[in-house]
Amino acid sequence: MMPFPIRACLFAGILLAACETQAPSRPVGSGCQYRDIPGTCRFESITPSGPSTYGEGFRTLFSFLPDSDEETSKTGVRIIIGDGKDPTKRYLVENRIEVGSETRCVRRVRLRGPCSPEVFEFPDSKNVY
User: Fold this and answer.
1) What is the DSSP string of 79-128?
2) Looking at the domain assignment, is residue 129 inside a domain?
3) How confident is the model at residue 22 (pLDDT cuts 50, 70, 90)?
4) How confident is the model at residue 30 (pLDDT cuts 50, 70, 90)?
5) Domain enclosing residue 76, as ranges
C-alpha cells in the first residue's frame, strides 16, 4: 500500500488535518497554487477515538501560530493520517506529539485551483502508522 501524504484540509466548513513528512515539490492537487505561511503548531489535546485500520486512534488537535504578526492563528485543527484516520499511538510517539509539545509547520492557503482551501504540513514528521 502506497503511503498517503498527511495534511490538513478544509472542506465545506469541516476542518480535517494531518501531517506530511516533506513539503511537496509540486502543488497539492491538479493546477493548484498555494501561499505558504510558516509557523509553529502546538498540540492542544489528544483523546482516544477508537479502533481504525491502523490500530487504536487518538483524536489530536493543534493550534497554528504563524511566524508573522500579519498572519492569523488557527485553533482546533485536527490531525488525520493516511486515508483519513486519527493518528495511532505509534505515530504520536515516533513524532514526539503530546499535549503542550510544539513543532515547526507550514500553513498553505490556496490561491487558485480545484484543491483544498487550506493545508497544514509538518516537514519533520515521520509517516508511520
Assistant:
1) P-BTTTBPPBHHHHHHTT--TT-EEEEEEEEEEESSS-SEEEE-TT----
2) no
3) very low
4) low
5) 9-121
**Identity (one letter) of the amino acid at 6?**
I
Other CB atoms within a 10 A radius of the CB of residue 101 amount to: 14
**Looking at the domain assignment, is residue 92 inside a domain?**
yes
Alpha-carbon distances, residue 55 vs 31, 58, 86, 116 (angstroms): 35, 10, 9, 27
Does the structure show a pLDDT above 90 at 65? yes
Residue 43: burial class (beta carbons within 10 Å; 0-12, 13-18, 19+): buried
51 located within any domain: yes
Is residue 38 pLDDT above 90, yes or no?
yes
Assign 83 a pLDDT band (cuts: 50, 70, 90): confident
Please indicate, yes or no, if residue 4 is contained in any of the structural domains: no
Count of the separate structural domains present in the chain: 1
Question: Which pLDDT value is given to residue 105?
Answer: 96
Q: What is the rounded CA–CA span in Å between residue 37 and residue 63?
A: 14
